[in-house]
């Protein structure tokens, strides 16, 4: 068979893994600096945990897992249900409730195949985190500050910057209503992208209460979810596309005009008179406080963006998004969710967090050549192999070098030096140690710098000191 992988997934070669680890390690280092601790959750969750948390658009992208085994052995399929499925000639799966089981029907080549799904691959790390908090609440100290670096899966259409399997690097604090948490998270964002060398990143913030206040002020409160969904597509479909979508959802003309005026506002003072109700005013006050605190801390990368909406339905307060020139979509995003744990039985626990899109960050850094020269260095020193006796002599030195924390290897074959040097170049190994008969006799090592070609000879007893220097 011809080897292949599913669309929207990728293999990573050693060089790519090293660079990705550089991103992960940089992000994790900042997380730890601010006192966050790591957790992990399973790749799959029960389907009830995930569905209904991401809005209609998000729920469509959840990867469901087909149960194995004969789960329909004792199930009775209603004849009227089966007739309805076949009569309408469904071409995609459709959820139908049977007499005893929730059944799904997959119609393929006019054949009706019923099956049950109970599990799904996680869509993000936030909803599983809420489930985790409720399940382990007695083992956690609140406010609980966690970070999590794991892959997620979405049944999306693959394109540049959009994959079906990708890593998220999440950082959240739950159990606190303080806006200082938002301020801290934006500091983390600023510090991460500065450390990664992405100089043109822009942090935008808005507030769901401001958007809700806008909807009420324009007498379109019943269309709030439509407003959020449409605004979230602003960067993809533009002003005209957003207007068309709002119109298709039944938003009246004056409402659409008001939304467009709001979305183009450049400051909080510009929207203040447009927001009439107390909820919207509270949102304005909270965003203003966050921006003022960030200004005092010297963080200049964050600003208010009226058109920012964030499509996920669980956001209730501040929403955050990070973009950069030439990047495909956002490279970091998040927001506050006031009662996500309430779905799982733990009421009135507010949380806020952001997620770094490691794959988009990787693509951006690769295009801009932002990775440091040593990001792809796995082996720091290679011992050349001149023969069996010389290789045996190197064993002791190799052990000492590794004990000193220096990544080192011995070339396995007594091949020509040209071949060994080519191997070192291909693996980006900066130094090659050569120990021939002369070096053995004098208990010395000749070191070659693979970048400059310079060679120098040192005593074996001074090797560690030389390498550390």
Descriptive account of the structure:
This protein has 469 residues and is α+β, with helices and mostly antiparallel strands. The chain has 3 domains: 14-46 and 123-368, BirA Bifunctional Protein, domain 2 (2-Layer Sandwich); 49-119, no CATH class; 377-468, Rossmann fold. The protein is 39% helix and 21% strand. Helix 1 crosses helix 13, helix 7 runs antiparallel to helix 12 (278-296) and helix 8 packs antiparallel against helix 9. The chain is elongated. It starts with 13 loop residues before the first helix and ends with a helix.
CATH class of the largest domain: Alpha Beta
The CATH topology assignment of the largest domain is BirA Bifunctional Protein, domain 2
The SS-based structural class is alpha+beta
Supply the CATH superfamily name of the largest domain. Bira Bifunctional Protein, Domain 2
What do the pLDDT scores average to? Answer: 88
Low-confidence stretches: 74-78, 90-102
The strands making up the biggest β-sheet line up spatially as 1-8-9-14-13-12-10-11
CATH architecture of the largest domain: 2-Layer Sandwich
Largest sheet: 8 strands, mixed
Q: Characterize the overall form.
A: elongated
